[in-house]
Amino acid sequence: MAELPRQTTRPRVVIVGAGFAGLRAALGLAHLPVDVTVVDRSNHHTFQPLLYQVALAVLSPADIAQPIRSILRKQANTQVLMDEVVAIDTPSRRVSLRSGAQLAYDYLVLATGATHSYFGKDEWAPLAPGLKTIEDATEIRRQVLLAFELAERQMVEQGSHPPLNFVVIGGGPTGVELAGAISDIAQLYMRHDFRHIDPSKSRVMLLEGSPRVLAAYPPDLSAKAEAALTRLGVEVHTKTQVTGIGPGWVEAAGSRIDAIVTLWAAGVQASPLGKLLGATLDRRGCVPVDRTLNPAGLPNIFVLGDLAHFEQNGHQVPGVAQPAMQMGDHVARIIAADLKGAQRPAFRYFDKGDMATIGRMAAVAKVEWPFKAHMSGFPAWITWLTVHIFFLIGFRNRLSVFAAWIWNYLTFTRGARLITGDQRLPGWPTQPAADPAADARQKERVL
Q1: Which of 85, 120, 168, 237 has the largest CB neighbor count within 10 A?
Q2: What is the CATH number of the domain that holds 201?
């Protein structure tokens, strides 16, 4: 394998993954005397907290994604490679890329995030897509919008259509946001667009195995979130374990539920990259790290974000955007301390709070800074909107997202309702003729 040459004799920092953690680490190293190489399978950074709005046609993919090269273009010490790490040789300090090249490193930052976990039932994946990437979001958008289009067509041709039941599995923030957004689009945004079906008669069911939705939130906010979902028409079923998923149905609590579209928001597992280190992993595949974010015995390797198992005050820090960004910033400070010969500072997570949106003008928020408060309803929604606009990268993204939100709010329309790819649903009783090209694209997406 060819080794990619060094540009200078300065220390080389290789960052694998350009999500929140990896990108913040790269930005923090901009003015240090190091050479930075960012490796990512995609050419863009995705603002994951707004993926569900792409999935439900509020925003377009370009509103929440920006090319990595564009973000880092002013950093003279940084290069970007669109590639994938397939092996890590810790004794020789080299990573192997899928292209066949090798990269030597002085510091290695692993920040490849997490993917879906189907708890050993991987055959459910094609039937119940999750939401982690732009590709996932456009697939969910395709399925949800296609369900209404197929119902309209079948109503014209046959005079009836299957029940429009949407089942979301998992009552965490992603599941709550998806369920609320599906109800919104059916009840408010498409009610006047069809001539032969009534989208408002759709059923949206949220299935959660634990006693309450948003289990990681305080009980009062969890209760308010469930009440808000109920007002939107979402049927919330807690203490309901899913035991089977098939084309057009979900089995839970001993009964079978018809489901035109099934979405998965019930579990995540860490990126498989952690296994390449040979380190001990936790049950989700996360790599345990110490106070300086290093795996045991590997002081020149940092593991960040969803891939890291970091404990503080006896609890694991959650795998969400806020700690990931703080970890990325902190790694840059640690490398700066090493270059000065100073002691490495210990990482400490500063919890500013959590928030989740629940449909139009409704949200819940646990605020920890600059003051402590539990918020719900419209005030929480305004807070959520402000925070997400602030953290979006790039002025164009902020402007386009804000404009889309205002337009949707005032006109009750959604401009990103595009259906691309295959025109079939797994559970639809009568399917159109197969499209070989669409089948090939779908197979690539699943693989």
Answers
A1: 168
A2: 3.50.50.60
The segments of the chain whose pLDDT lies below 70 read: 1, 394-396, 409-415, 430-447
Q: What's the confidence (pLDDT) of residue 391?
A: 83
Buried b (16+ CB within 10 A) or exposed e, 168-193: bbbbbbbbbbbbbbbbbbbbbbbeee
Burial class (CB in 10 A: 0-12, 13-18, 19+), 287: buried
Q: Which of 84, 135, 157, 177 is catalytic?
A: 177
Among 153, 46, 43, 124, which residue's Cα sits nearest to residue 423?
153
Q: Two tokens at 238? A: 């807690």
d(CA 113, CA 111): 6
Same domain, 252 and 222: yes
Rounded to whole angstroms, the Cα distance separating 204 from 191 reads: 15
Same structural domain, 30 and 90: yes
Q: If you ran DSSP here, which 8-state letter would residue 344 be given?
A: P
In a domain, 46, yes or no: no
Both 172 and 210 in one domain: the answer is: yes
> What is the structure's pLDDT at 410?
58
Give residue 370's domain range: 122-266+361-428
- Known catalytic residue: 177? yes
CA atoms within 13 A on the CB side of 122: 4
From the list 107, 130, 131, 118, the residue with the least C-alpha distance to 16 is 107
- One domain, residues 126 and 244: yes
This prediction's pTM = 0.90
End-to-end CA gap in the chain: 26
pLDDT of residue 357: 92
Could you write out the DSSP letters of every residue in 71-124? HTTT-TTEEEEE--EEEEETTTTEEEETTS-EEE-SEEEE---EEE--TT-GGG
